[in-house]
């Protein structure tokens, strides 16, 4: 039992350290683009298409008021635009503008390149196991 607990603690610690590493990579790659990590995350989420404020708040794990302020700042920079929601007249969706899409692509490519650089020396079998494990964790989250 003690060994299982020690292994679980080791796994938990490693995952937390990985989370911090990925947050640091996001910060490192977003700063040169003139973005905060949170802004870069928002732009990258919007690469999937327009999103409502409620969904964005949930995806980004931030309060609605914080999201509103962030969208306001990005809208002033003409990186995002508020558009009418297709089925709810009271709601709006946030979508990327052309400059916003270009910057979102750049942010995504920058963080992807850093992660690729970080993992490039892993043996193929380790990469496969890691990919499968992370996908399983995400599926069960």
Tag the structure with descriptive keywords.
globular; mainly alpha; 3-stranded antiparallel beta sheet; 70% helix; 141 residues; 9% strand; 6 helices
Short structural description:
By secondary structure, the protein is mostly helical. The chain contains 6 helices and 3 strands, in the order ααβααββαα.
Write the layout of secondary structure elements.
Blueprint (H helix, E strand, L loop, with lengths): L1 H29 L6 H10 L4 E2 H8 L3 H13 L3 E5 L7 E5 L1 H22 L4 H17 L1
Antiparallel strand pairs: 1-3, 2-3
Helix pairs in contact: 1-2, 1-5, 2-5
Walk me through what this model shows.
The chain has helices at residues 2-30, 37-46, 53-60, 64-76, 98-119, 124-140, and strands spanning 51-52, 80-84, 92-96. By secondary structure, it is mostly helical. Strand 2 and strand 3 (92-96) form a beta hairpin. Helix 1 (2-30) crosses helix 2 (37-46). It is globular.
Output the helix-strand order: HHEHHEEHH
Number of helical stretches of at least 4 residues: 6
Pick out the low-confidence regions: none
Strand order of the largest sheet: 1-3-2
Give the biggest sheet: 3 strands, antiparallel
Cα Rg? 18 Å
Q: What portion of the residues fall into strands of 2 or more residues?
A: 5-15%
Q: What structural category arises from helix and sheet content?
A: mainly alpha
Number of E-type strands: 3
**Spatial gap, N to C terminus:** 25 Å
Helix content: over 70%
The gross shape turns out to be: globular
